[in-house]
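Project outcomes to date are best conveyed with an example. Our students and postdoctoral researchers have been running inverse folding experiments weekly, and each run begins with a structure described purely in tokens. The record below, which covers 183 residues, was selected by the lab manager from last quarter's runs and is presented without edits.
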């Protein structure tokens, strides 16, 4: 965790050192990852660690403060006492984007309530069990720092509620990412 915080601090300093005049842009597409923590039926005492990856993280504003957001995500948790066992979820979500920016547009703050679908999976040794697709929803809060005209770095908190085949596989994640700013 210390290495992750050091990386984020270094990126923020680099953004401030090399920042050009920042202009308002309407959207972004990026990738983010971070540590994840199960909050559903998965027993926290049995999990050694978890991670979340938002392979596609998208947002586009139609006005100054309202737009649309989407993400393609995956989580994975490894059992503490059996490294051959893992459990996780993956899916796609979309919903409204509510955003506000600082006066100089160097900082932007987003809130994204999203809904969609996800699948759960359990893997033991070489056997994989995948659940049927289930309803999923998420609440995400993100702060983005614009490093220049085209790049921003972000940090945020994500909560995902997923209950495939009756098993609550919800999770909470601390996310860090990099984004390409769209015109």
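After processing, the design step wrote out the following sequence:
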């Amino acid at each position: 965790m210390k290495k992750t915080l050091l990386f984020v601090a270094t990126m923020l300093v680099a953004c401030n050192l090399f920042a050009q005049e920042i202009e308002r842009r309407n959207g972004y597409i990026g990738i983010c990852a971070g540590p994840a923590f199960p909050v559903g039926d998965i027993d926290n005492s049995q999990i050694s660690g978890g991670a979340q990856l938002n392979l596609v993280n998208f947002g586009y504003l139609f006005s100054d403060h309202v737009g649309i957001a989407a993400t393609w995500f995956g989580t994975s948790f490894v059992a503490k006492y059996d490294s051959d066992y893992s459990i996780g979820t993956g899916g796609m979500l979309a919903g409204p984007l509510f955003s506000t920016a600082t006066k100089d547009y160097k900082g932007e703050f987003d809130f994204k309530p999203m809904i969609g679908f996800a699948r759960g999976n359990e893997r033991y040794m070489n056997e994989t069990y995948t659940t049927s697709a289930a309803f999923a929803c998420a609440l995400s809060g993100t702060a983005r720092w614009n490093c220049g005209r085209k790049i921003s770095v972000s940090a945020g908190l994500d909560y995902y509620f997923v209950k495939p085949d009756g098993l609550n596989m919800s999770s909470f994640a601390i996310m860090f990412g990099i984004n390409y700013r769209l015109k």
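The beta strands are 27-38, 47-61, 66-79, 85-101, 107-124, 127-130, 134-146, 151-162, 171-182. Helices lie at 2-18. The training component of this project remains on track.
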